[in-house]
Amino acid sequence: MKYTYFTPGPAELYPTFAAHLQTAMDEQLGSISHRSARFRDIYRHTDEQLRALMNIPATHGIFFTGSASEVWERLLLNCVEHESFHLVNGSFSRKCYDYAQALHKFAHLHEKPLGEGFDAAEVEIPEYAELVCLTHNETSAGVQMRPTDMHKLKRKYAQKLFCVDMVSSAPYPDLDFSLIDSAYFSVQKAFGMPAGLGVWIANQACLEKAERLQRYDSLTIGAHHNLPTLWKNYQTFETPATPNVLGIYLLGKIAEDLNRIGIETVRKETEEKARMLYRFAEGSDRYTPFVQQERHRSQTVVVLNTDGPAKGVMEAAKQQGMIIGSGYGKLKETQIRIANFPAVSVEQVSELIKVMQK
Amino acid sequence: MKYTYFTPGPAELYPTFAAHLQTAMDEQLGSISHRSARFRDIYRHTDEQLRALMNIPATHGIFFTGSASEVWERLLLNCVEHESFHLVNGSFSRKCYDYAQALHKFAHLHEKPLGEGFDAAEVEIPEYAELVCLTHNETSAGVQMRPTDMHKLKRKYAQKLFCVDMVSSAPYPDLDFSLIDSAYFSVQKAFGMPAGLGVWIANQACLEKAERLQRYDSLTIGAHHNLPTLWKNYQTFETPATPNVLGIYLLGKIAEDLNRIGIETVRKETEEKARMLYRFAEGSDRYTPFVQQERHRSQTVVVLNTDGPAKGVMEAAKQQGMIIGSGYGKLKETQIRIANFPAVSVEQVSELIKVMQK
Fold first, then answer.
1. Residues B293-314: pLDDT tens digits?
2. Are residues B205 and B312 in the same domain?
3. What ipTM did this prediction achieve?
4. For residues A159 and A173, is the Cβ–Cβ distance under 8 A?
5. Which of A260, A281, A314 is the last residue of a domain?
6. A12–chain B Cβ distance below 8 A for any pair
7. Per-residue pLDDT at A330 exceeds 90
8. Which residue in B73, B98, B246 is closest to A222 by CB distance?
């Protein structure tokens, strides 16, 4: 049976994925050298398409890693000498904080319970924090932080580096990269690709910080995928080590497809599908949206409390050919998570709602 | 035009690759959760097949990273408090040494010119070196170190951790994992897969070292893919972060294919094809093997000096549908590198030799 995956990543593959993969195989892209002109063209194309899609200016470079989790480490090693600051309201924002501690950074924490979100006005950032880690979409709880709040915070704390985790929402959030120094995502979420590639966007301010830290004997910015090395190779659209060439090619192709649709349309469709799901839950006596505040409700990962055992809902959906995500961790029993990525259409979301009604 | 890639990685895809990829797409493996039973079965299968193929005992775990280059960093962070020791005779063995320095380890160096190899008898390892980094196959120069020499060294320095770079030779070298503490490779070489997955084999001695270092405030073993976290997840065939699920599946399938052929046959064929290439060069007045000592000649990456410009040979081969590798770095003008991986058959090597004769 062929399923439709409404899981928050790995997720449903983008409808054009299989055709692009076939082209890549026909063109033997799995065998080409990562030091060839052909690869540099692929990197350049993906770079151009992502810039167009997400409005990334020339001040920022676009780099590839093995995963977004790897970026947590690269970012903390390269942009923090002593202190970082983290808004934490779920498992993934917490993992970034945990990484900072494992790397012996002094990590400041502003934490809220699962399901609650952050507004700019309530956030106080300690004086010596060098890097501010924000999460646009906390995948575990389905909570978003609005870009306008992120931008406000950066204006208030202009001297600090601001980084946005957009792992399970890119390219949806409309970030102003004249304010956001760094952002990152992985491809198995809203880009509808198999896992195995992380994307790290970082500006010259991040690079300068990394170059400064690199001169210190007292700490290391890492040897693999450190920012100065990534940046240097990026000047000729190369990578320090052999990257996931196929993944970079496929990402460029899917970004091109999304550009053809237009990012505004992609965003509107995302909001339309999210509205359908939240409205359905609000009008139902068997589901309720987990996140109370409407402004904090994620547009890309919809988390609902279930009246009965979540497992029953998931099983029923599966029998109809739809895989929905379980609640995260301890909330497995009483929650479901529905990914609302560009790979699933308004019609497919309607179908899912019909099945959930039964 | 469909080419045969004799490049030392990325390289020719293994003949069964496309069929396995199709199965993976049909089974929607690009969308499955890395926390699902299905993924754990995939990890278990790949683990079993690699163990059978490379004779890896239960004392060693098998972990996945984004690349083999990433493993250099993980290994040095997790297994070295102060000092490492490196046998260097080319660009890749040197990169590991460079990584050690970037991580502020005190890295001891025993270096030889490109094209020369190491024997056990000539190697003196400093007293305080904790980790010994050996390269089975130096891809840049086509030089191998024989496993028997590696085993001898370990017997002499039994208290030190021994690690083998088998990036461009695995599963060819017959390592005795009762002596070798750790080894690593990437999949775009002899396993005939697209790049984007590294494999790290490490034993309990490595784990114990990492656990000890993890308790120190004065250094970090890294936050992402550190050995204790990899090992903990490995107990249930999981990974700390979302891995390259598709790559792990495909690696297991190709390892299974190689097991069906039998590792002894794979090794014999490799040696047969290498013998054909070296004999041809020795009998030719236009090519000479770069590596003088027969015992140091790589079985998996054959490097030849060309009489005329290497570019001419490469162009002529390309017109016949064969892509051969250029010499590494400055040797681009006067050398060619021919990958001799299981993906190319005796017949294909014969064809290549015919073309090179012209």
1. 999 999 999 999 999 899 999 9
2. no
3. 0.98
4. no
5. A260
6. yes
7. no
8. B73
